[in-house]
Amino acid sequence: MPVIPERKSRTIRVRALAIGGAAPIAVQSMAATRTCDIEATTRQVRILEDAGADLVRIAIDSKADVAALAKIRKATKALLSVDLQENYRLAADVAPWVDKLRYNPGHLHHHEKDKPVEDKVAFLVDVAREHELALRIGVNAGSIDPVLKERFAGDDVGAIVQSALDHCALVDGLGFRDYLVSIKDSDPRLVIDANQRFAAARPDVPLHLGVTEAGLPPDGIIKTRIAFEQLVSRGIGDTIRVSLTLPFDDKGREIEVGRQILADIEAGRFRSVPPNFFDGLNIIACPSCSRVENERFIDLAHEVKEMTSYAADHDVTIAVMGCRVNGPGETDDADLGLWCGPNFVNLKRGSEELGAYSYDDILGRLRTALDDVIAKKATSTS
Asked: What residue numbers bound the domain in which 346 lies?
């Protein structure tokens, strides 16, 4: 007997691709290149397409990216989703070249701050409707609407679920139906909680599942599997993305891992999770994307994992982020956070800035900070 129950969500369409309802669970990924590097981005799209991706997402952050996207569109027949990042106004420029738009409610506050959010959402819906595009409302724990963060103080899961519900209501009010929602965190336990809460409130809305910054294999695969097993087996989840920190040519592995997890769930092959799985050192790393300004980020993530192996038994979380968009906010909850610029790496302890260091110097600085965190944790528990 199949383990995946019938899903309650409605079916939406991204061109010929059906998502939700009785449609097969779609597997997608995101190009880990700078979009303005047309050759590299096109090659990565092909890698993902060859691996069997149903949809490929590309990030857009400037007019130069838009111009590059137009050329990439002509070089591939893959279904393309565009991530609008902080600039929702680019939606009209990219619409002719894509099949789906993704916006983050937490980023709508970054531009035209005096303009009501409702007007910005209406603009996005108008663009999607005019060009017959699907829409994704993508809520991330690292970029929560500041009003909701204050209202749900101490309950970030409640805040991100409410953000998703509020934006569904806005889009519903505009009479648009071809949309889905994603609610993500780097902790699979919070991903499970948030998506269960949302699905209970809006079972009709298709859900895109993912664990952000799942990190390096095999840990990143395990974290993702934990979330997907618990949600998909409950009939929650209509499309998935596996986010791993991988070398360029291995990007297709995200699609392979996603399909394997779905096949295992369907066959009833579950992986048990011991009670102490989340104890010890936890390294969070983003999968890289077009926002990353220095390709050394991938190497740095691997170097951090290797250098910190001596602290494996200590309950410390280290976040390694590749860009200035998500990096500052999504490292706040880690004991130590690194977010990368073009020529430097910012080091943080929680939300406290410790300084910016070169790629050559950062590992030594991180080790000093890690030893300090370990010593202070030992003192506080003694």
From this structure: 282-381
- DSSP H helical ranges for the chain: 38-50, 63-75, 91-94, 117-131, 146-151, 156-173, 188-201, 219-232, 253-266, 296-307, 327-330, 362-381
The verdict on 183 and 230 lying in the same domain is yes
Cβ-proximal residues to 379 (8 Å cutoff; 6+ apart), any chain: none
Q: 342 burial class (0-12, 13-18, 19+ CB within 10 angstroms)?
A: exposed
242 phi/psi in degrees, rounded to 5? -95, 120
Nearest Cα residue to 248 out of 27, 31, 28: 31
CA within 13 Å, CB half, 205: 31
Answer for the pair 21, 236: CB distance below 8 angstroms, yes or no: no
Q: Which residues of the chain have pLDDT under 70?
A: 1-3, 290, 382
Cα end-to-end span (Å), the chain: 52
Burial zone of 340 (CB within 10 Å; 0-12 exposed, 13-18 middle, 19+ buried):
buried
pLDDT for 184 equals 95
Give me the number of domains the chain comprises.
2
What's the confidence (pLDDT) of residue 379? 87
User: How confident is the model at residue 1, as a pLDDT?
Assistant: 42
Element (H, E) at 12: strand 12-14
> Mapping DSSP to helix (H, G, I), strand (E, B) and coil, where does residue 9 land?
coil
Residue-wise pLDDT for 118-133, tens only, equals 999 999 999 999 999 9
CB 218 within 8 A of CB 180: no
Shared domain check, 320 and 177: no
Positive/negative CA dihedral, 47, 49, 52, 57 = positive
The residue to which tokens 């880690």 are assigned: 334
Is residue 309 within 8 Å of 266, Cβ to Cβ? no
- Return d(Cα 82, Cα 224) in angstroms, integer: 23
Would you tell me how many other CB atoms lie within 10 Å of the CB of residue 325?
23
Give the type of residue at 71.
K
Same domain as 255, residue 331: no
* Structure confidence at residue 80 (pLDDT): 98
